[in-house]
Write a structure and sequence with these properties.
The protein is of the alpha+beta class. The protein contains four helices and eight strands.
Length: 207
């Protein structure tokens, strides 16, 4: 509730400074002079969504502001072929926090042969607000560190098993063991909003 009080207080301050919230009507044109993170209540009033207040200066010297709600997100990289299992597991584990999970195709620029390799399938984890985004990020970070630390040992062990007569490197993995990395988790929220909602919106095909 304190968060909502702060938002209302900021709105009152903006009103006194001449930045009246513009919600509907004819199209307005102005220069963007400031951007600030804020929150808006969900339709059922049971949760909040992250948003930004956009402050504009019109040609005639008048001011106005608009509020844009936008879901924060980051990407999760999984072992190839395990995306569906990880998707299902994350939805169950964070069912009250993750709003949606979407599979996307992107080229991994971290790979030395990324110019010839086909795009990878990533999981795009979407949230209602940055607090819930940070909660999931904090839970996944130690898991990813552990997975990275043992990745080389596991690869060596798998190779040894596969080289033995009748041996196989295949085994059933815990879905959390299949998460190898996170990407774009550290992009500031207001930067994410402005990039994704630019005048010429596009979805980068690489990461």
């Amino acid at each position: 509730m304190a968060e909502e009080v702060d938002v209302e207080k900021q709105h009152q301050i903006d009103e006194r400074l001449g930045f009246h919230r513009y919600q509907e009507g004819p199209e307005k044109l102005g220069w963007l002079v400031n951007i600030q993170p804020t929150t808006v209540s969900s339709v059922d009033k049971k949760s909040t969504r992250s948003a930004v207040d956009l402050y504009f200066l019109e040609e005639d010297g008048e001011y106005f502001k608009c509020t844009l709600a936008y879901d924060p997100y980051f990407y999760v990289i999984c072992k190839p072929g395990t995306e569906s299992d990880v998707d299902e597991y994350l939805r169950r584990k964070f069912e009250r926090v993750i709003q949606n999970v979407v599979k996307v195709q992107k080229t991994d620029l971290h790979q030395p042969n990324h110019l010839v390799e086909p795009p990878r399938t990533l999981l795009k984890l979407m949230f209602r607000n940055t607090q819930e985004q940070m909660q999931v990020r904090r839970e996944l970070e130690p898991i990813i560190r552990k997975n990275k630390a043992r990745a080389q040992v596991m690869d060596t062990y798998t190779t040894m098993l596969s080289s033995r007569p009748g041996g196989s490197g295949a085994r059933i993995l815990d879905p959390m063991d299949c998460i190898s990395d996170m990407r774009e988790y550290d992009v500031p929220y207001y930067v994410r909003v402005t990039i994704d909602n630019s005048e010429s919106p596009h979805t980068p095909e690489s990461f």
